[in-house]
Every structure is written in C-alpha cells, then in structure tokens.
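Sample entry (186 residues):
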Amino acid sequence: MTNRVASTTLGATLLFGAAWLSEAVGEPRVQSRPSGQTQSTSPADTSSQMGGKREAPTTPRHAYHTEPPKGPLPSTLDPAQFANKKTAFVVYCLAGRVKEFLYQMPCYCPCDKQGGHTSLLDCYTSKHGTACKICQKEVIVAYEQSKDGKTASEIRQAMELGDVFKFDIRKYVEEHYSEFAQTTPQ
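Predicted structure, serialized as tokens:
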C-alpha cells in the first residue's frame, strides 16, 4: 500500500510539473550565492530584486551549482541507446554537448528532492531525461542559448522568466533529429 501511495504521489507530482512547465507559468527565480556550492531557487528569493514585475508563486526550491565545475564531469548516457525514441535521442545528444551548462542549471521538476539530483546534469547521467518533459525542454533551452553565446547565469535568468519554454518540443525534435542521427554513431 505504501508503494502504491508513493507511486501515485510521484505520478501526480510529475504530471503537475509537466503541466506547469508546458504552460511556462511560475518558473522559480534564482538568487545568487557566491560560494559556488549547490544553490536552491525560490520565487520569493528574488521577486523584489526583479522589479516586482511578477507575483512570486509558492514553489519548491531546486538545486544547481553557481560556479563552473572544477574537475571532470560525469558522462551523460549514450544517446545511441535511445535511437528508437527520437525525443530521448535528441535531448541526450544535446546534453552531452553542454554538460558544463547543465551542471549550472536547476532542474525544475522534483528530481532534486526525490532523486537527490544536484543539477540538471544529473537528469542526463541517468535515464530520468528520457521521460521528463520538464528536463527535456530545459536541455533544449540550455543548448540553444549556449549556442547564442549566453552564459550559464543568463540562461538561468531566461528560464526563470519562462518565455523560453514556449516552444513545441515535438517540432524541435523533428527539425533536429536527422542532424544528430548523422553525427552520432549508433
């Protein structure tokens, strides 16, 4: 019975999180911390620092690292193992290309609380990113914005505002799948 309740709670949490991100409403804001350690985000932390433009909803805190990694990072999973799942294949291809940015990005799903993740990178060193639409959209945003020369801090700020999440993930995958399929050995 306990496993059933936990499973139902997790399912409801993930469903709520996916709906929340797909509407791009109420994404958390980040407050800088100079220590370089894992940081938590909360809308209440910076709503006044952002000029009070948005009412800060109550949301859970999310972990990430405020500084670039000091040493080597763990590998993301090989995208080739997801060749039959286009979305998972594309997002794992992207994750492998921007690990340093993912290390400095919060994941807005509950994986930090429920899975002990310390940044978005952890979602791609495991199979978590195969099914989580929140993480999938985040890695696409991190990849695209890093290509545009944005810093990790600028990407986090864009994510906090939420507008960057207003895209069709299926369309993105269809448009980019062949370019990654050609460059990734299977």
